[in-house]
Amino acid sequence: MKVLIAEDETLLLKLLTDKFQKEDFEVIACPDGFSAIEMYDKEFPDIVITDLQMPFSNGFELIFHIRNTRESSTPIIVLSNTNIESKIITSLELGASDFIEKPFRLNELIMRVRRLINVSLVRH
Amino acid sequence: MFEKSQLPPERFLLDNKTLDLIYYVSFIVLVVNALIISYVLLKKLSDKFQRIRRDEVKENVQEFLSDWIIRFEGSKEPKTLNALQEFPICNSLKKKIYQEVLYEEIFQFNQVLLGFEKQTLKDLYLLLSFDRLLTKKLKSRKWYVLVSSVNQLISIEDHNTSDISGLINHPNQQVRLSALKAKIAFSENPFPFLARLKYPLSEWEIFEVIKTIKLKDLKNFDDIHLLINHDEPSLQVLGINLARIFQLLYLKIDVKKLLDHADLKVRRSMIEFITECGNGDHVVYLKKIFEEQLEPQQKVILNYIQEYGCDEDIPFLEYVIKNYNPALKIWAIKVLYHMNQNSKIHFNYLLSSDSKDRRKITQHLIDNQW
Amino acid sequence: MVSSLLHSLVYFLQYGVLPYCIFTLTGYALMTIRSVKVLKKHKEANINIDYKTLNQSPFLPSISIIAPAYNEGVTIVENIRSLLSLGYNNLKIIVVNDGSKDDTLEKAIKFYNLEVAEYYFKYRLPCNNIRAVYKSRNKAFKNLIVVDKANGGKADALNAGLNISYSDYFACVDVDCLIEPNAFENMILPVLNNPKEVVAVGGIVWLNNDSVIKHGHMIKLQVPGSFLPTVQLLEYFRAFLLGRTAWGSINGLMLISGAFGIFHREYVIKVGGYNKKTVGEDMELVMRLHKYMLSNKIPYQVAYVPHPFCWTEAPESLKILSRQRNRWARGTAECLLLHKDMLFNPKYGVIGMISYPYWLIAEWMGPFIEGLGLLFTLIMIVMGMINWHVFAIMSFFIFSISVFFSISAILVQEIYIGKYSNPKDLMKMFLTAIAEPFIYHPMTVYWAIKGNYDLFFKKTHSWGEMTRTGFNKSVVK
């Protein structure tokens, strides 16, 4: 299982990477939105976890890229510290599969990732 | 030291003495310039090395924090200093720079995590006795240090480190607000000390206080009387708004007295309170004070009439439709449509009214389907 | 005959140049002291800004960014994208295509999936015909509005944008400017913290020549490589950090740079929007706002945020720079002339009694006095009448003092802003500061005089073509 994590806080990115590796995922860690788009095209991950506010290119553009430019149904989880309704709705409308607000629980994130992967496996 | 000036004195204002003075001044300024240049360059150079060092430390510390959380995941093992010694960073932690960076990173991290991970971080914070560091910072004389350390106190949920009651009446507004938030977050019954505040609350502060109280699972609202019957209007506004938000219908509030209150903001929040939480007793009174309200309150009153009004209120609505601005006209016509059977007949009558304006608005309402 | 002419020149030197020198030097010194105080306070206040709480607050005013674009086909997509990535919660982006002759509009339509939208607006301010209003079909770009209108210049495009906007505040932004992600949260703080009506907030504009920019974001800020942009950066340091900071703190700001500033929309419409007839439309608007608020006795503030949030490319060739300075000189003269009734009028408080006179003497008259002084010295040298001893001491004095102000600007920058990380960058700035009085300053004097000559004798009112190098050049580097 490959998971792509786009997150600009290095500390959180490190923790997520460690955690997912412990859970036997292959992790592609991207510190900004632009490298996330680049890495997505190169690596074809099974699931994407992204922040919304990131340098160079924000989470919305990543979702837009995956859903519209690549027309892929890779599950996307948005992990953001915003609780502004319009931003949450925009990200879901663009095609994000799930939204988790920071602060969050690590185990909850893992559970949701597993569920989404199962769903997308069943669909194919 | 200069040659004698060739110019006769009447042709030039500057005599030799002044010229000497100017020369010396310029020279001093030049030396000052050189000093500034060397100071800035040296500072910059040392900054650069420090930053490189700090980045290095930061990377190590981040690695350690991530390992720390993963290490204790799912285990009920106590977090002791012995456990800390398993990590290679342990020896470096005695150094000041490591402590500083770790302190910062813990709070940075604390903001994005919840539950078990957050508790693990807090245990580390207590283990390294960072709470003492925080207590020291809470005694600082700089207001911005106070604000940041009180915020840190809130984020780590450290109830017993330090008493911040003194900061609630601090002359700086930002310090006051964060101390207030901390105090509310840590207390079971925030109303008594809210009633003892010495400064009036601004609109922004009221908003923040309500937000903090909403996050708490308060059970006991008995002391809210202290706020509602306070002498300070802004505290009364806070009390009334809280009563409205938590739907405290059992409160015995002297409605009439508060509706006639001298302060406009108190009257406004009271109208919002009775329209949301009251019964139909106040229609007559609200109609009477309709004139002096601002538009948002007028809309609230119209909504109240829609809920509790009767046939007698139709002329009043007509009056509003005739005399007020378009937004209120639309609102009043909407009330006519929804209130009861007779008002709806009236609404239909408006459709064939001779006033083109009113016909237009009514049609607009029907087109927009409500 | 010749000797009487010389006599009058000597008198001019004594009674004209000397008081002027004392006046400007005292002015600079006072401003520096004031600025340091304000900057210190500002830095302390901004340590604990919580952007998340700020963005969720119901008190946050809405802002629309109005960005006029004329023949920007090369960079328009990238520039809009950079504006869209700003963090402010309550933001609309209005790009006004000012009748471009190239494919600016087509590119924007294609990339952002735009379609003509039903959009209700009134021509509250006069502007050329608005042909269509475009909005995106894509939800991700729902904050974007593109306006297509007939060409009419920058002021006209801004007025068109004002007609379209419904926000509390609007920001005028040059479309090729680079804006920091948290710029507007910071710019709106004076509005939230001030009990008075804040009609405008000015910000610092700095230069990003030769900095590394990737996808509309600053990667690494550097001092420009060549002399001309560096010396301009030094000018910006002095003007924005020492000058305007001080003016802003006493509510005496006369100019908010047209490249970056936010204004209260309703008041700007009330005073009649941007003036199309002057090239200094940014300064003219601020002066008109001051006039309106003071005449109507509404307590108000023209605030200033002393931190750089906006980056722009400085002209690198002498020709374009001279055109820009020529325009600035004309703009200043026109604005001062238009509002001459404010001079020494106690009704206009700080503006009438302090700001306006200072601008008149230091900014407008300055170049003439300096120019005449230089001319006088040249004549004296040619005629062999100069007293070299006095000349040397006076030059030494002027040199060390002017370098002192430049260097203190760099020092203040380093302490309170600290944007440049490399010691080499600062070394470059210092060398430039030393070279400036000899090489660059006489040129600015010449350009300013030429600008005034063009305005009063040749009646030039046009903007002059601005060729832009744009982001893409920096991206390549």
UniProtKB/TrEMBL annotation, chain A:
Keyword Phosphoprotein among record annotations: yes
SMART domains per the UniProt record, alphabetical: REC (SM00448)
Family matches, as SUPFAM superfamilies: CheY-like
Biological processes, Gene Ontology terms: phosphorelay signal transduction system
Domain Response regulatory: from-to ranges: 2-117
Keyword terms, alphabetized: Phosphoprotein
Residue positions where 4-aspartylphosphate is found in the record: 51
Claim: NAD is one of the keywords in the record: no
UniProt cross-references to PROSITE patterns, sorted A to Z: RESPONSE_REGULATORY
Protein name: Response regulator receiver domain-containing protein
TrEMBL record, chain B:
Domain of life: Bacteria
InterPro entries, per database record: ARM-type_fold
Transmembrane segments: 21-42
Alphabetical keyword list: Membrane, Transmembrane, Transmembrane helix
Record's protein name: HEAT repeat-containing protein
Organism: Pseudarcicella hirudinis
Top-level taxonomy: Bacteria, Pseudomonadati, Bacteroidota, Cytophagia, Cytophagales
TrEMBL record, chain C:
Transmembrane portions of the chain: 12-33, 368-386, 392-417, 429-449
Keyword Lyase: no
Coiled-coil positions: none
InterPro entries listed in its UniProt record: Glyco_trans_2-like, Nucleotide-diphossugar_trans
Keywords from the UniProt entry: Glycosyltransferase, Membrane, Transferase, Transmembrane, Transmembrane helix
Domain Glycosyltransferase 2-like: 64-219, 252-397
MF (Gene Ontology): glycosyltransferase activity
Highest taxon above the source species: Bacteria
Family per record: Belongs to the glycosyltransferase 2 family.
This protein's name: Glycosyltransferase 2-like domain-containing protein
